[in-house]
Amino acid sequence: MSHTPHTSSRSTDLSRLRSAVRGRVWLPGDARFDDVRLPWNRAVAQPTRAVVEAADAADVARLVHFARDAGLAIATQPNGHGASGRTEDTILLRTGRLNAVEVDAASRRARIGAGVSSGALQQATAEHGLTALPGSSPVVSVAGVALGGGLSWFGRAHGWVSDSVRGFDVVDALGNQRRVTAASDPDLFWALRGGGGDYAIVTGLELDLHGAPALFGGRVLWPGELTRDVLDAFRAVTAAAPQELTLWLELLHFPGSDPVVAIDLTYLGSASQAVTHLAELERLPAPLSDTRRSMSVAELGSITAEPTDPGAGVTRGELLAHLGAEAVDDVLTSSIAPMLSVQVRHLGGAFAQPSDTPQGPLSAEFAVYMFGSPAFAPAADIAARQQLMAHSLPITGRKPVTFLNPAEQLSDALPAASIARLRAIKSDCDPAGLFRGNFPA
Ligand SMILES: Cc1cc2nc3c(=O)[nH]c(=O)nc-3n(C[C@H](O)[C@H](O)[C@H](O)COP(=O)(O)OP(=O)(O)OC[C@H]3O[C@@H](n4cnc5c(N)ncnc54)[C@H](O)[C@@H]3O)c2cc1C
After folding, report:
1. How far is the CA of 141 from the centre of ligand 1 (A)?
2. Residue 56's pLDDT is what?
3. Residue 1's pLDDT is what?
4. Which of 63, 79, 145, 304 has most ligand 1 atoms within 8 Å of its beta carbon, as the pocket-test mutant?
């Protein structure tokens, strides 16, 4: 089937949108239009023709019918942590009102709306001794993370976030509300479990939950001079770590402060079990601070304490085959300026297990996420430093979809065979290009 980009060559009276949907609508000229159209990542310019905050799933279906008639595409964006700016001639759909959370503790399942944040879901699961698969930030949406595969604190134990998705409620390109499961629509279900938001609008998800009767976690922070020793300890602990234990190495250099190095960690179990795996950390010199403690799964966001308010970021993510070479020591012990942080996440464990998803199983042992802010250095300088660092590390040539930056493509993240299958699915389920993901297939 031919694939015609959906653009607004027709002249469209967008004011009709106000009566076409029940939710809120902002159009150019409206007082708050220039605020509500901004993505969370303020470094990304985001042109759009209108912004709609849908009232419910039926409202999403109304919007699809409107957009089809108007010849406009729809870009669904819960917050815009992963904004790419590819929103020309779209209606931007906000999903924040699709915020229902239902936990069925007996079946270890959750049903959530597409606007639910990771933090809200963790709050709901915590009281049952259960957990979903949260990443570092409580404010990202579960849908946005799952549609990109998703790297969680607990991925070493339970795989990609999308491996735990059992069903999606969607509105398709014909404006029909449907439930999509592995049995009902194997291709679309597969595409949604990591191929991005290009195939349907998700209005709800059903997810497996996992047992978390106890959790130990926190950050241990040392002065930057100790980076080589901390890196050695990080290697030693990760090499022997059980799947319940996850360590991330953090190189941090904030303006006006000395560089510091941290190990952030979580252990799905008790404090007394955790310490048996962490002896190498205890042999390091006394840290500047140590926030490790038994905690609720609802408190995970406090470990990295990433900003929860919108801001500008210049980022680059990579998958690393290993951390073994001496050259890696030189790269990771050099100044990271003008970046503010470099995070190395230990993968392995269940990430390497079979996964019927676009990303599939991962042989990469680590991921790196580099972050700088254009508030402190020119974006081009930050990107050049990230490029240099990436090329000095054992990168695999693939990236997590959720770590893609605006200059990158879905094909930078996924295997070629997955990209080919995703393109075929796109042509089949959205031939006119009504849906526009941040990283189109
Ligand atoms: C501080 C911070 C911490 C992060 N930590 C992690 C982490 O630990 N692990 C990880 O994997 N990623 C992480 N990320 C990346 C994050 O997962 C992605 O940015 C992801 O896009 C989710 O962000 P969001 O909710 O703002 O989604 P958005 O950026 O708003 O949306 C991303 C894309 O998802 C699709 N989409 C979202 N909702 C729908 C829907 N309902 N229907 C159809 N398509 C939809 C669309 O294509 C959309 O463009 C982090 C990002 C930041 C800034």
Report:
1. 6
2. 98
3. 35
4. 145
pLDDT of residue 141: 98
Q: Give the per-residue pLDDT at 11.
A: 52
Which pLDDT score is estimated for 307? 87
The Cα–Cα gap between 1 and 52 comes to 30
The residue nearest atom 17 of ligand 1, judged by CA position, is 145
Amino acid 305: pLDDT: 87
- Residues in the chain with pLDDT values less than 50: 1-5, 7-10
Atom of ligand 1 at shortest distance to CA of 307? 1
Residue closest by Cα to atom 2 of ligand 1: 137
Q: Pick from 140, 162, 192, 341 the residue to mutate for probing ligand 1's pocket: most ligand atoms within 8 Å of its CB.
A: 140
Distance 397 CA to ligand 1 centre (A): 21
What is residue 190's predicted lDDT score, i.e. its pLDDT? Answer: 98
